[in-house]
Design a protein that fits this description.
The complex is a heterodimer. By secondary structure, chain A is an alpha/beta fold. Chain A has seven helices and seven strands. Helices cover about 30% and strands about 15% of the residues of chain A. A seven-stranded mixed sheet of chain A has the order 4-3-2-1-5-6-7. Chain A is globular and about 65 Å long. By secondary structure, chain B is α/β, with parallel strands linked by helices. Chain B starts with 6 loop residues before the first helix and ends with a helix. The mean pLDDT of chain B is about 95. The chains are: A alpha/beta, B alpha/beta. Chains A and B meet through helix 2, helix 3, helix 6 and helix 7 of A and helix 3, helix 5, helix 10 and helix 11 of B.
Chain lengths: ~210, ~475
C-alpha cells in the first residue's frame, strides 16, 4: 500500500447527501475482475443521462475537476452496501482522499484498508469548502496528514483530527493484517479461555463437521 | 455494585482479545459469513500467502448470483459466463480453504441471512461478521452482527478478529404491539423515516420494548436487517424465550449438556434494567401504518394513506434537492396519492422478507385473487421453499398467477439476471430503493410482503387493510 503523507490535488465538490455505494459502483460491475480497471465504473449510472450520455451537471464530468484526487462530499457518504469495489473504483479513478461531514461505517473502514484517507469535518466547514471549490479558478487543496491540516484554495488552513491508528497506517503504508498477526499470542490465549467459557462453540460441538 | 450493562456491553466485553493505546479493541469474531462477492478477499489471502486461522468458523453461501429458474441444470443453467464464474469461484474458494458452503444443488442453499439463523449457525451472544451489509439481520437472535468489506473479510480469515472502537449505543424503544394490519417491515421503515438514513451512524441500535417482545423471531429479523439503512453499525435485540425456542434443535445449535450450558449463558445476555444508552428514541406503535417508500432512499418513506411530499415545502435546501432528484428519478409528482400509483412488477423476496412467515402473509393476500402485473416470489432458502410447498403456499401463488422461484437474492440486488427494465416500477419487499438498485433505471417502492401482495393483485400501491378489512 502506498503511504499517504501529503496530497496537493484538485478536489471535486459533490453536494449530495447519503451517496451510497450502489451509486459509486453499481452492483452489476462487482463481478468484474479488478484487472480490467475499475475507473470506467466510477459513478457509472449517476453521471449519465437516460440515453447513456455524460451529464454536464455532474461534477465529475466537469473538465475543471478531470484530474481530481479528492472528493468533498455530503453527509453519510458511502452508505449502503459493503462492497469494497466502491473504494477500488475511486482509487482507479485517482481518488486518494475524501472529505465529508460523516461517512458510512463500512465504507470508511474499506477506505482505510486501501490507503484512502477519510477526513470528517463539521457540516458548515464542508459546505464552505464545496462553495469555494466551485468558485475559484484552481480548485486545489493540500492535505497534510502528519500535521492534520487542509489548505483551502484561498490559503486558509483547516485543522482536522485523524484517528491515530488510521494516521499511523496511512503514513506508513502498513498492511493491517501484518500488524494484527503480532497479537497472535493474545489471540491464542483468548481462544483457549474462550473454549473453556463457551464449550458449545467448539467447531465440532454440535456433532456436525464444522 | 456492578454497573448495569446493555447486551452490547456484555457481548463486547466477552470478545475483547486485546486493546490498543488508542482504545480500539481487537474483537473476537465467532462466525464469518461469506458470499460470492468475497472473491476479492480470497484473492488477497492468496496474494499475501496467509493461512486461514479457523476455517470451521467461516460459512459460505451461494446467493447473490444464483439463478432463480432452471436450477435443475446446475451451473450449466447460468448462461452469462461472468455470473457463472462468480458461483464457481465461491465453490472453489470454499473447497480449497476447507470452508463449509451452502451451494447450488444443496437443499439448504439460500440467502446467507436466512440460512444462518435457519441452520442454527446464528446464536445469541456471538459476534458475527458478514461479507454483506445486511449481516445486522442476525442481531434479532441477540448476536452482535455487522457487515464488512473484502479487506476485513480477509483480515478475519487470517486473524479471527477485527479492530473496532467501542460503539455508541442507541435504544429504539417500541412502546406497544403493532396495530392490526401493520407488520415489522412497516415498523423498521417508520423507524428509518424517523431517525433518517444517517440517523444511527456510529451507533449500535438495540431495539427494545413491548413492541419488539410481541414480534416473532422472523419478524424481528426484518427489523434488524434494515439497521444499516439508518447507518447503524449493527442492530440487535435482547434474546428471550422465543429466540431460545427458535434456536433449539437446529442443525448447528448445541445439543444436550452443551445446550443447557449455552442456555444458562444466553439468559445472562439481556440488557440490565437501568442500563444507559448514548441515545434513546421512542416509537409510538399506535401511530404506525403500512409504509411505502416514494423516493430513492429508505428514509424517503410515508404511510400508504399519504401522498408524495412536495419538495417546495421542505425548508432545508439539501433535503429539498435530494427530494427533487428522487422524484425526478421516480417519475412522481408532489401531492400524488400513494394509493393511486400503478406498478409494473412485484418482487416478494430478499433477506428482509423471504422467510416462511413472510410467504404465509403474502399467500393469504394472494389466495383467491389474481395478479394484475408480473409477480415473482423468491423464497429465502431451499428449506423455506420446501416448507411453503408442504403448506401448499406455492399452489396459492401459482393459482394467482405469481411466479414461484428458487432461492437467492434475486431482484433485491439484481445481479443474477433478475432485473427491472429501465423505467419499470416495482413494489418490492427488499431493503434498498436506491437508484438502479433493481436494474438501471428501475423504480423501487419498498413495502411489506402483505403490501406487495396487495399491489400484485390490484396492479397499484394499495393499503392492504382495504383488502383484508383488518386494521
Amino acid at each position: 500500500m502506498d503511504p499517504f503523507r501529503t496530497l496537493t490535488a484538485t478536489a471535486v465538490p459533490l453536494v449530495m447527501a447519503n451517496v451510497n455505494t450502489d451509486q459509486i459502483f453499481p452492483a452489476r460491475f462487482i463481478r468484474k475482475p479488478r484487472a480490467v480497471g475499475y475507473a470506467q465504473f466510477t459513478f457509472h449510472d449517476v453521471r449519465r443521462d437516460d440515453d447513456g450520455m455524460l451529464r454536464a451537471d455532474f461534477p465529475l464530468n466537469d473538465e475543471r475537476y478531470h484530474d481530481a484526487r479528492i472528493i468533498v462530499g455530503g453527509t453519510n457518504f458511502g452508505c449502503g452496501s459493503s462492497r469494497e469495489g466502491a473504494v477500488y473504483t475511486l482509487i482507479d479513478s485517482g481518488i486518494r482522499a475524501l472529505i465529508a461531514p460523516s461517512f458510512g461505517d463500512i465504507f470508511a473502514a474499506n477506505c482505510l484498508k486501501n490507503g484512502v484517507l477519510t477526513v470528517t469535518l463539521p457540516d458548515d466547514a464542508v459546505v464552505d469548502l464545496r462553495d469555494q471549490l466551485r468558485s475559484v479558478e484552481r480548485p486545489v487543496l493540500t492535505i497534510d496528514l502528519e500535521a492534520e491540516t487542509i489548505v483551502r484554495p484561498d490559503g486558509a488552513t483547516l485543522a482536522f483530527s485523524a484517528d491515530p491508528f488510521q494516521k499511523h497506517c496511512l503514513l506508513n503504508g502498513l498492511n493491517e493484517i501484518d500488524l494484527s498477526l503480532e497479537f497472535a499470542a493474545e489471540m491464542s490465549a483468548f481462544e483457549a479461555a474462550y473454549r473453556g467459557r463457551f464449550p458449545w462453540l467448539a467447531p465440532d460441538a454440535s456433532g456436525r463437521k464444522g | 455494585m456492578l454497573r448495569a450493562r446493555t447486551i452490547i456491553d456484555k457481548i463486547w466485553d466477552s470478545h475483547v482479545v486485546a486493546r490498543r493505546d488508542d482504545g480500539e479493541c481487537l474483537l473476537y469474531i465467532d462466525r464469518l459469513l461469506l458470499q460470492e462477492n468475497s472473491f476479492h478477499a480470497f484473492d488477497k489471502i492468496r496474494r499475501e500467502q496467509r493461512a486461514i486461522r479457523n476455517p470451521g468458523q467461516a460459512f459460505a453461501f451461494s446467493d447473490h448470483y444464483v439463478p432463480t429458474v432452471g436450477r435443475e441444470k446446475g451451473l450449466a443453467g447460468i448462461a452469462d459466463p461472468e455470473i457463472r464464474n462468480m458461483v464457481e469461484l465461491i465453490e472453489s474458494d470454499s473447497r480449497d480453504n476447507h470452508i463449509t458452503l451452502f451451494g447450488l444443488g444443496d437443499v439448504r442453499q439460500g440467502i446467507l441471512h436466512v440460512v444462518g439463523p435457519e441452520q442454527g449457525i446464528t446464536q445469541p451472544g456471538l459476534v458475527i461478521a458478514g461479507a454483506d451489509s445486511h449481516t445486522s439481520t442476525h442481531g434479532a437472535l441477540g448476536a452482535y452482527a455487522f457487515g464488512v468489506g473484502s479487506s476485513e473479510v480477509a483480515h478475519v480469515l487470517a486473524v479471527q478478529g477485527l479492530w473496532r472502537p467501542r460503539p455508541k449505543t442507541m435504544r429504539v424503544l417500541v412502546d406497544a404491539a403493532l396495530p392490526a394490519g401493520v407488520t415489522s417491515k412497516d415498523l423498521i421503515l417508520s423507524i428509518i423515516g424517523t431517525i433518517g438514513a444517517g440517523g444511527a451512524v456510529g451507533h449500535v441500535i438495540e431495539y427494545a420494548g413491548p413492541g419488539i417482545a410481541a414480534l416473532s423471531v422472523e419478524q424481528r429479523m426484518t427489523v434488524c436487517n434494515m439497521s444499516i439503512e439508518a447507518g447503524a453499525r449493527a442492530g440487535l435485540m435482547s434474546p428471550d424465550e422465543a429466540v431460545f425456542d427458535y434456536v433449539k434443535g437446529r442443525p448447528y445449535a448445541p445439543k444436550g449438556a452443551r445446550w443447557d450450558a449455552a442456555l444458562a449463558y444466553w439468559r445472562t445476555l439481556p440488557s440490565d434494567p437501568g442500563a444507559a444508552y448514548d441515545r434513546d428514541v421512542r416509537i409510538a406503535a399506535s401511530r404506525i401504518a403500512p409504509m411505502v417508500t416514494w423516493g430513492t432512499n429508505p428514509e424517503q418513506v410515508a404511510p400508504v394513506t399519504g401522498a408524495v411530499p412536495d419538495p417546495a415545502a421542505e425548508r432545508d435546501p439539501d433535503r429539498r434537492a435530494r427530494m427533487e432528484r428522487a422524484l425526478s428519478y421516480m417519475a412522481l409528482d408532489p401531492g400524488t396519492e400513494l394509493r393511486s400509483i400503478a406498478v409494473d412488477r412485484v418482487f416478494i423476496g430478499s433477506c428482509t422478507n423471504s422467510r416462511i412467515e413472510d410467504l404465509r402473509i403474502a399467500a393469504a393476500i394472494a389466495k383467491g385473487r389474481t395478479a394484475q402485473v408480473p409477480t415473482m416470489v423468491v423464497p429465502g432458502s431451499g428449506l423455506v421453499r420446501l416448507q411453503a410447498e408442504a403448506e401448499g403456499l406455492h399452489e396459492i401463488f401459482l393459482a394467482a398467477g405469481f411466479e414461484w422461484r428458487s432461492p437467492g437474492c434475486s431482484m433485491c440486488v439484481a445481479i443474477n439476471g433478475d432485473t427491472l427494465a429501465p423505467g419499470e416500477r416495482c413494489a418490492s419487499t427488499s431493503n434498498r430503493n436506491f437508484e438502479g438498485r433493481q436494474g438501471p433505471g428501475g423504480r423501487t417502492h419498498l413495502m411489506s410482503p402483505a403490501m406487495a401482495a396487495a399491489a400484485a393483485v390490484t396492479g397499484r400501491i394499495t393499503d392492504v387493510r382495504e383488502l383484508t378489512g383488518v386494521g
